[in-house]
Design brief:
alpha+beta, 5 strands, 5-stranded mixed sheet, Nucleotidyltransferase, domain 5
Length: 110
Amino acid sequence: MLSVFIIYGNKYDNGLSDLTISIDTGGTFTDVVVADQDQNFTLGKAPTTHERVFLGVDQALESAAEKLGCTVKMLLNSSQLVIYGTTHATNAIVTGSTAKTAFLTTSGHK
């Protein structure tokens, strides 16, 4: 199962506009694909940081932004859509590395 979060952004007057940013956090790498309105693609990649997942996301965004000659802030402000997907939950279940959990209720809970 892939978890996906979609965020709608704003345009920013920096020469870039209407970008779509797709981010995938995998077990080894975090990948970013930036697509412009003409379907030109820019790729960013960074190691996945398991202890703090969004550090790897930020590094992958920095990689893509650098290739586009802008900052991460400019990149995000120029996006109309950001799509984030991860397989972390699925990987944890498959490898048996989920945290031990419990569900407690009061008497009569339905």
